[in-house]
Amino acid sequence: MEHAQEALFRPVRAGNAFEETVERLMQAIRLGVVAPGERLPSERDLATRLGVSRVTVREAIRSLQENDYVESRRGRYGGTFVNEVIPKPAPGKEFGDIHDALTLRKVLETGAAEAAAGRSLGPAERRGLRARLEEASTASVGEYRRKDSRLHLAIAEATGSAALTAAVADSRMRVNELLDTIPLLEPNLAHSNAQHERIITSILDGDPASARQAMAEHLDGTASLLRGFLV
């Protein structure tokens, strides 16, 4: 499996380092490249091969450990080992469903961010975006999905297009069904909040290109986690 490991543990993109690291580790586990009972490469080795910091690798491994995919062992022969029994993906969702939902979401929501940034927003609209951003950034883990959805819908509403807002709402329902089948990872929530800040700042600054780019990067991070856990 040496060549397979080389293919999976190639450098990730900087924008979503944590999410893509989780995706690569999950692919290695679920494809059997690192089989149940086998040890993952060391933190130092993974950091070098993936082109990320050891802190990022440590956070990704901790997230998988908290969700019963791996365990850490101490001592001379210690390290991080894949559990003998790992959680199975939620049934009923095929790769085509996931790819279709994520493709539609990216087209709609990057366009919504760009369109919202291109409008002259009134004071009430600007206050509404800031309020939804604050709600999401201070939400508890249990509230996060709902507050995150409200923020994304507020961005769609800021385009002034009722049809686009309805399309984003429908798309979000599909994506939330997928997100509800994977664990909420706190490092991802912190990263998402920082990305939300960049998206809203770009919209309020009237910078369509930056708003679109920031939204695309944000959605790519979510897509990495969904592919890692479900595909």
Automatic annotation (TrEMBL):
Pfam families: FCD, GntR. GO terms for molecular function: DNA binding; DNA-binding transcription factor activity. Keywords: DNA-binding, Transcription, Transcription regulation. SMART domains: FCD, HTH_GNTR. Residues 15-85 form the HTH gntR-type domain. This is FadR family transcriptional regulator. It comes from Lentzea alba.
